[in-house]
Amino acid sequence: MTSQAHTASVAPALDRLSALFERFPVRAHLFHAGPLCGLTHFAAEPGRGFLHVLRRGEMELRHAAAATRAGAPKRLRISEPTLLFYPRPLAHDFHNAPVEGSDFVCATLDFHGGAAHPLVRALPPLICLPLREVPGLEQSLALLFAETEQLRCGQRLLADRLFEVVLLQLLRWLLDHPAADAPSAGLLLGLADERLARTLTALHERPGEAWSLARMAELAGMSRSAFAARFKAQLGLTPADYLADWRLGLAQAQLSRGRPVKTIAAELGYANASALSRLFAQKTGQSPRAWLQAQAEA
C-alpha cells in the first residue's frame, strides 16, 4: 500500500526536447578528425554553429571583439578533453602548438530556421565543458571516435548522427544543471523548471489547440497570476507572446517547405489565413508572402 501511494505521488517523466527537435531539426556534419597545428580559424556563417570535441592536448581559444561583445570570452586556455558548443554563428580561433597540435573531432551544426531556431535564441554564445563534467557522454564519444579513426562504409553519415546524439545528451545535461552556462532568462530556464516545463512541452507538442492562460496555468499546477509571473521571470516573455512566437516559427518553417498559408493557419489554431497574416505583420512587419519572398532573395 505504501509503495503504491509513493508511486502515485511521483510526477510522470517528461520529454522536454523531442518536440523541439522534431519541429526544428539540427543537422550535424563532420568536417575534421585529427590534429590541428598552429592557428586554425573558424568563420561565422549564417544559420551555422559548431561542435568541437578536444580529445587530447591543450590549446588557447580566442575570439575577436565582435564575439566578445556577444558574450564569448576573449581568451580561454583549455588543457583537458573538452566539448565546445557554438549554437550560433561566431568566429573563433584555435591556437595550438605549431608541430604537435591537439587532437579534435569537429562538426558544423545547421539549425533549421537559423537565428529563429528556439535553441539558438535560448543558449549562450559558447558552452565550454570538460568532458569529465558531463557523465553519460562516454559511450557516444567512444563510438564517434571509433568512426573517425578509420574509413569504413557509411562513416560520414554515422559520424554525423553520433554528433547529433552528443548534442542531445549535452542539452539533456544542461536541462538537469540549469545553473551551468544558463542565461538570465529564456527557454532553457523554462524547460529546466519542472512546473513550467509541463506547459511548455504541451505547447510545443500541440500548438494548434486553444491555449488560454487558465489552461496553461492548470497544466503547471499553479494559479494564473503565479504562473504568469513565473513564466515571465524565467522566459522573459508572457505566455501569450511565447505561444505566438512558437506558432510564428512553425509557420515560417512550413512556408519555407511550400505549404499554403490557409492550411498552416488551420493547423496552428487560427480561424483563417488572415489571422495568421496579422501575426506575421505584428511580429515581422511583413505578410507571409512578403516574408517568404525576402527569404528567397536572401
Layout of helices and strands:
Elements: H1 2-9, H2 18-23, E1 26-36, E2 39-42, E3 48-56, E4 59-62, H3 65-69, E5 75-78, E6 82-86, E7 92-95, E8 102-111, H4 118-122, E9 127-130, H5 138-149, H6 155-176, H7 187-192, H8 194-205, H9 213-220, H10 224-235, H11 239-256, H12 261-267, H13 273-284, H14 288-297
Antiparallel strand pairs: 1-8, 2-7, 3-6, 3-8, 4-5, 4-7, 6-9
Helix pairs in contact: 5-6, 8-9, 9-10, 12-13
What does this structure look like?
Mean pLDDT is 88; it is low at 1-10. The strands form 2 sheets. Strands 1-8-3-6-9 form a 5-stranded antiparallel sheet. It has 2 domains: 18-176, Jelly Rolls (Sandwich); 193-297, Homeodomain-like (Arc Repressor Mutant, subunit A), CATH 1.10.10. The chain starts with a helix and ends with a helix. The chain is globular. The chain has 14 helices and 9 strands. It is an alpha+beta fold and 298 residues long.
Low-confidence stretches are: 1-10
Task: Please state the overall shape, judged from the principal axes of the Cα atoms.
Answer: globular
Task: Give the number of helices.
Answer: 14
First-residue to last-residue Cα separation: 64 Å
Describe the largest sheet.
Answer: 5 strands, antiparallel
Helix and strand run: HHEEEEHEEEEHEHHHHHHHHHH
Structural class: alpha+beta
Helix content bin: 40-55%
Level-2 CATH architecture of the largest domain: Sandwich
Please sum up the structure shown:
This protein has 298 residues and is of the alpha+beta class.
